[in-house]
Amino acid sequence: MATRRLSRSSRNCPGLSIANAKMNIPVNPALFICDLQEKFRPAIWEFPKMYFPWALPYSSNIVAYRLCHRLATTQKMIKASHILNIPIYATTQKRASLGETCSELALEQSDETKTAAHVDKTAFSMWVPEIWSALSEGPHEVAIVGIESHICVTQTTLDLLANGHKVYILADGVSSCNKEEIPVALRRLAKEGATVTTSESFLYECMGDAGIAEFKGIAGLVRETKTGTKDALQTLCKI
Known about the structure:
By secondary structure, this protein is of the alpha/beta class. The chain is 38% helix and 16% strand. The chain is globular, with a radius of gyration of 17 Å. The model is unreliable at 1-19 and 52-71 (pLDDT under 50).
């Protein structure tokens, strides 16, 4: 699999790799989507904030109805990954029992979605042979969204760090059944060396420069999703 290339990579920029290192711009990013499955919908705290529930019908419950007009963190990251040419790696946990990846994410239906691997597992960590064998060579900067913060997200992060990768946990895109588990897990993982950040911060770090061609698409996506982003931040990042 080819390493992602932004438009700036094709410009005549002497010392570009040195500049990227100085600016801490991810040069080999990947998106990991951990176990966002059908049967977790009623169990996970604020599950809809992590993905966009297109299928919700109109409801007299205005909170539920408003969710239909938001593009939450995971779908925003999927769209951004298309714009920035970031490969996506997704897993399910015991798919036969817990169901498929939520259909709203359309990982297998969209020509725009670059799903490098979409595998089922019994291990809690996403770091299984089908995933690591699909990664391109070299260390990666892996952004993680999904569930649960203190189990699969934690074990995936620890495995990625142990194998030399940099990990960004998107705090507006992870959750657990019990919300109290989330800050405990994030504090632990930050101490272990992961970067706990937000989806928008990660995307702008990937770009590093408003002069690149992809900036217009990401800026438009940020505007389009500002309500959902604010809602996710106020819910998932204020625990």
